[in-house]
Design goal:
Helix content is 51%, strand content 7%. The protein contains 15 helices and 5 strands. A 5-stranded parallel β-sheet has the order 2-1-3-4-5, sandwiched between helices. Strand 4, helix 8 and strand 5 form a beta-alpha-beta unit. The longest helix has 27 residues.
Length: 346
C-alpha cells in the first residue's frame, strides 16, 4: 500500500507539473504590449507603479485593467510624454513575433497639445491661443500622417501576428470653464475639441491604411468632460501634471470599454475581481519596467503649465489691455470682453 500510494503521489506530481508547463505557452500566446503616451500610461489617475521612471504608469489605466480582465500578460511600455520618435526608440523593442495584442495612443505630444492648452488657459488678452491651435492643426494635417504611417509599419513588422488597436483622444471640454485659475473661452474650447477630433480623424485613417483597428473614445466621454457634473477628465489639478488627463473612471468606464471589444472581441465591465488583479500586478509591472528605465529616461515630460500672470510678457500685455493685475475683477472683465469678441455670432 505504501508503494502504491507513493506511486500515486508521483503520478499526481507529474500531472501537476504537466499542467504548469502546458499553461506557460498559453500565457505567451496572450502577450499584450501597451505602447504610447500619457493617455495610455495612466497619467491623471494619481496612483503610479514604482518603476524608477517618470512615465506615470498606473494599474488603474486601461492597459492594466484589460490585462487583468482578459488574462493577458502585459508589458506596460506606454510612458507619459512619449512622442512618435520616443515610441520608436524606446518602446518598439518590446514587440516580437509572439506578441498577440498591441494598443497605442500617440500623436498629441508631437502636435504640442500640452503647449497649446497652456497657451489657451491664459486670459485671452495675454495669449495667442488661436495661433497655437493653427500651428498644431497644420502639423496634424501635413506632417503627422506620414509619421504615423512609418510608425505603424514598424509595429506591424515587429509584431506580425498581433491584433493592433490604435487608441484616440477624447474631447476635453464641454463649453464652460469652471476652474478658478484658467481662462478658456467657449470659442477656444470649441476649437480645442475640434483639435481632438482632427487628431482622431488623421490617426484613424493612418491606422485603417495599415489594417489596424481604431478605438475612438469621443462618444463615451460626452457628458464627462472637464466641468461636467461627473468628470472623467481632470481639470486644473494639484499637482498640475494631473491636469487634462483621464482620471480613474475615465479609464475604467471610458477607455477600457472602448478598447476592449476591438482588442479582445469581448466587452469590458469593471469588477471587484478585475480591480484586485490589476492592483496585485503592480510589483510585477514595476520590476518589469525597471529593466527599461535607462531608455525611458530619454523621454521628456510634456506637461500643461498653469497660467503665470507674473511674467514680463503678461505684464506688458496687461498694460496694453488696461488690466490691473492686482485686481481679479479687472483680469476677468478684460477676459470676458476679449472672449465676447471671439465668439461667433449666430
Amino acid at each position: 500500500m505504501t508503494t502504491v500510494r507513493a506511486l500515486g503521489l508521483i503520478a499526481a506530481g507529474a500531472a501537476a507539473t504537466s499542467l504548469v508547463i502546458s499553461a506557460a505557452p498559453a500565457q505567451a500566446a496572450s502577450s499584450y504590449v501597451a505602447l504610447g503616451d500619457s493617455y495610455s500610461s495612466g497619467t491623471g489617475t494619481r496612483s503610479y507603479i514604482a518603476d524608477g521612471t517618470s512615465c506615470q504608469r498606473s494599474t488603474f489605466a486601461y492597459p492594466s485593467l484589460l490585462a487583468a480582465s482578459k488574462g493577458l500578460a502585459l508589458n506596460f511600455r506606454a510612458c507619459s510624454g512619449a512622442t512618435i520618435p520616443d515610441v520608436t526608440n524606446t518602446q518598439l523593442s518590446a514587440l516580437t513575433s509572439s506578441t498577440t495584442h498591441v494598443t497605442i495612443s500617440v500623436g498629441g505630444n508631437d502636435a504640442g497639445f500640452a503647449d497649446v492648452l497652456t497657451e489657451c488657459a491664459m486670459p485671452g488678452w495675454a495669449s495667442n491661443c488661436n495661433g497655437a491651435i493653427d500651428a498644431a492643426q497644420s502639423f496634424v494635417n501635413n506632417v503627422l500622417p506620414g509619421k504615423l504611417s512609418t510608425l505603424y509599419t514598424s509595429i506591424r513588422s515587429k509584431a506580425p501576428n498581433a491584433k493592433v488597436v490604435v487608441v484616440g483622444y477624447p474631447r476635453i471640454f464641454m463649453g464652460e470653464d469652471c476652474n478658478a485659475f484658467t481662462w478658456f473661452s467657449p470659442a477656444e474650447e470649441t476649437r480645442l475639441n475640434a483639435m481632438a477630433d482632427l487628431l482622431n480623424s488623421k490617426t484613424s485613417s493612418a491606422a485603417s491604411a495599415k489594417g489596424f483597428s481604431f478605438a475612438n473614445p469621443t462618444s463615451r466621454f460626452i457628458g464627462h468632460a472637464v466641468c461636467d457634473d461627473v468628470e472623467w477628465i481632470n481639470g486644473l489639478s494639484d499637482p498640475v501634471s494631473e491636469s487634462y488627463h483621464p482620471n480613474k473612471p475615465g479609464h475604467s468606464s471610458g477607455y477600457a470599454p472602448t478598447v476592449s471589444t476591438p482588442l479582445t472581441g469581448s466587452a469590458f465591465t469593471l469588477s471587484a475581481t478585475t480591480s484586485k488583479r490589476a492592483a496585485a500586478s503592480a510589483d510585477r509591472l514595476a520590476a518589469q519596467q525597471r529593466t527599461y528605465a535607462a531608455q525611458d529616461a530619454s523621454i521628456e515630460p510634456k506637461e500643461f503649465r498653469a497660467p503665470d500672470l507674473t511674467t514680463a510678457a503678461v505684464k506688458a500685455a496687461a498694460a496694453r489691455a488696461g488690466v490691473d493685475l492686482a485686481s481679479r475683477a479687472s483680469i476677468d472683465e478684460a477676459d470676458r470682453v476679449w472672449s465676447a469678441r471671439q465668439t461667433p455670432t449666430r
